[in-house]
Amino acid sequence: MLHALLKKIGLAAAVTGVAVAGMSNASAQQDPIRVGTFLAVTGPASFLGDPELKTLQHWVEKINNQGGVDGRQIELVHYDTAGNAGKARTFAKRLITSDQVDVIVGGTTTGTTMAVIPLVQRYEIPFISLAGGVPIIDPVKKWVFKTPHTDRMAARKILKDMQARGFDKIGLISGTGGFGKSGRKQTLSVVGDYDIEIVADETYGPNDTDMTAQLTNIANTDGVDAILNFGFGQGPAIVTRNYEQLGLKLPFYQSHGVASKKFIELAGEAANGVRLPAAALLVAEKLPDDDPQKPVVTAYKKEYESTYNESVSTFGGHAYDGLMIATQAIKRAGTTDKAAVRDAIEQTSGLMGTGGEFNMGPDDHLGLDLSAFRMLEIRDGEWELAE
Amino acid sequence: MWNRFRNPYAGLPVLAIVLAVLPLAFSNPYHYDVAIHVLINAVVAVGLNLLIGYAGQISLGHAGFFGLGAYTTGILSGVYGWPPLLSVLAALVVVGVLAFAVARPILRLSGHYLAMATLGLGILISIVISTEGWLTGGPDGMIVPTISVFGWELFGETRWYWVMAVLLLVAVWLALNLIDSPVGRALRAVHGSEVAAQVAGVNTISYKVLIFVVSAVFAALMGTASAHYSGFITPDLAGFFHSIEFVTMVVLGGMASTYGALIGAVILTTLPQLLTGFDDLEMVIFGAILMAVMIFMPRGLVPTLTARLRKGS
């Protein structure tokens, strides 16, 4: 039995030993610039993480083929979080302390991003997040930046359009998932700036299959001029179908959460006439030729679609913007010294990305304004500029 | 002489030495981080093993207790400003009382029905955490303050490693103690045949309730520790998949073996970290390893290996 016990312990030691050996650092080379990333490539948020990773991999390769940044090659270190905040935290720690990356571009979801913020702040490493949430950059955190527009900006863009069309009483319907909830909160917080009143406020669960009751409630409220749906996934498509089934004629707005071809497929005919704010990338070819953003978005779209043979999404665009901001900051700083790179990122100005023109500053670690969003209308199953 | 080594407590000092020596192999905080996650999972697995391995009751909802513990201390210390030690204690009480309250009706069930009931309980807890955003921060999670005791702040990987290591030693000692007590013998009788145990005068219900509450509190304790260690919690902690992970650790390591549960936690926590290099193949290899172990060692890793070694020696 002593023998058995010792063997048992030996096994434990062996397992741990193997574990530790496998985790040890790759030798710290001075030459390449190490860009770390952790993305939700699998799991429920994979439709965000997958195009993000593909974008990073392709453009890192492209930059390297063109001679790298300041003659230094880029090395991309990637881990898959599956959207799990705990895993994100461990991988971020691994990127920082074991892989010793120079900058992190990643964090697909707000949850995974928020989980690593305490780490990047403590280890003082520049971090560009690809997630939407407002709390990532508000209040401003010294080492944290992000590229996607916030849901507050989307709410403002929609409300501005409503105001311009003379609507002052609207009905709100939102999903109870993370996206819809945050959108509802941001809409309520800024609605006062546009002289618009929310007269009906309905919600639906992520797995609901019929929202006619909520829509009927809204339609029966006195004086409603327009309806806004803030939601994500299949919910908004069902709302849109129900909307048509009820024969409602009110102007109908959706959020940027439906800015994917999938929504038009799911909602079918009913999608026609829906207005939504979205990045210019969706209507790349339809932008007027004098639009300053046109060259960037058409080039990105063409290259992504020809490389991966699938239609482009705004999410991959966020990763492209993050990589460009990071590499250009390193180029301007002329070093990978973390503090210098951080300062250079903060000084980003006039950088035209797929999400809009980035003009960052000490108080603004996003750097986009409302012009980054375009108001689109769906006509005959296609995105068209509404403005 | 031989009997001395049959004593399961003999493993305890060895475990202590391993835990004490292990940091020599760590070269950066990431290694500590992985070790801390191993320790967290190990304590939960040791507790869950009492329920699954010894009492023969399945629970697919233990992550619910883990998450409830994490969120209770997170909310009390973060939102209401309680001192963290007090909020940890409160979390244990909350989970203990909840587990006690649901244990009687739930443990009346057996087999698939018991699995379903615990599954439902875990999912309920995780739904409440996700939807009550005003309190819990919703799906995006919430920030949890660090623990400080008399001005000494429990922060950083090294300090947490030692705290977790002590927790594991205490948990293993408690578990061994419980198994070796009349309660443990009664539990094994319940596992063998509940009717026979009742006939022999064992109050099966109250023993099952006791062990259910103990294992829930183990999970809650590590939930609170993990919340204060990482400083940020999300509803994933209480999710269904997390529960399955805990059960897998117990089954893989070997049911009714405290050290087996421990080894299960070590493997299931470190393996994904080792396999990340394989990218898309990661899940395939991970699954294949789990399947191979379960096919060739259906009793779990440690019981099978010890049985083989015993036969050999």
TrEMBL record, chain A:
<dbReference type="InterPro" id="IPR028081">
    <property type="entry name" value="Leu-bd"/>
</dbReference>
<dbReference type="Pfam" id="PF13458">
    <property type="entry name" value="Peripla_BP_6"/>
</dbReference>
<keyword id="KW-0732">Signal</keyword>
<dbReference type="InterPro" id="IPR000709">
    <property type="entry name" value="Leu_Ile_Val-bd"/>
</dbReference>
<dbReference type="GO" id="GO:0006865">
    <property type="term" value="P:amino acid transport"/>
</dbReference>
<dbReference type="InterPro" id="IPR051010">
    <property type="entry name" value="BCAA_transport"/>
</dbReference>
<keyword id="KW-0029">Amino-acid transport</keyword>
<dbReference type="InterPro" id="IPR028082">
    <property type="entry name" value="Peripla_BP_I"/>
</dbReference>
<feature type="domain" description="Leucine-binding protein">
    <location>
        <begin position="32"/>
        <end position="366"/>
    </location>
</feature>
<keyword id="KW-0813">Transport</keyword>
<protein>
    <submittedName>
        <fullName>Leucine-, isoleucine-, valine-, threonine-, and alanine-binding protein</fullName>
    </submittedName>
</protein>
From TrEMBL, chain B:
<keyword id="KW-1003">Cell membrane</keyword>
<protein>
    <recommendedName>
        <fullName>High-affinity branched-chain amino acid transport system permease protein LivH</fullName>
    </recommendedName>
</protein>
<dbReference type="GO" id="GO:0005886">
    <property type="term" value="C:plasma membrane"/>
</dbReference>
<feature type="transmembrane region" description="Helical">
    <location>
        <begin position="283"/>
        <end position="302"/>
    </location>
</feature>
<feature type="transmembrane region" description="Helical">
    <location>
        <begin position="63"/>
        <end position="82"/>
    </location>
</feature>
<feature type="transmembrane region" description="Helical">
    <location>
        <begin position="249"/>
        <end position="271"/>
    </location>
</feature>
<keyword id="KW-0472">Membrane</keyword>
<feature type="transmembrane region" description="Helical">
    <location>
        <begin position="114"/>
        <end position="135"/>
    </location>
</feature>
<feature type="transmembrane region" description="Helical">
    <location>
        <begin position="160"/>
        <end position="179"/>
    </location>
</feature>
<dbReference type="GO" id="GO:0015658">
    <property type="term" value="F:branched-chain amino acid transmembrane transporter activity"/>
</dbReference>
<feature type="transmembrane region" description="Helical">
    <location>
        <begin position="209"/>
        <end position="229"/>
    </location>
</feature>
<dbReference type="Pfam" id="PF02653">
    <property type="entry name" value="BPD_transp_2"/>
</dbReference>
<feature type="transmembrane region" description="Helical">
    <location>
        <begin position="88"/>
        <end position="107"/>
    </location>
</feature>
<feature type="transmembrane region" description="Helical">
    <location>
        <begin position="37"/>
        <end position="56"/>
    </location>
</feature>
<dbReference type="InterPro" id="IPR043428">
    <property type="entry name" value="LivM-like"/>
</dbReference>
<keyword id="KW-0812">Transmembrane</keyword>
<dbReference type="InterPro" id="IPR001851">
    <property type="entry name" value="ABC_transp_permease"/>
</dbReference>
<keyword id="KW-1133">Transmembrane helix</keyword>
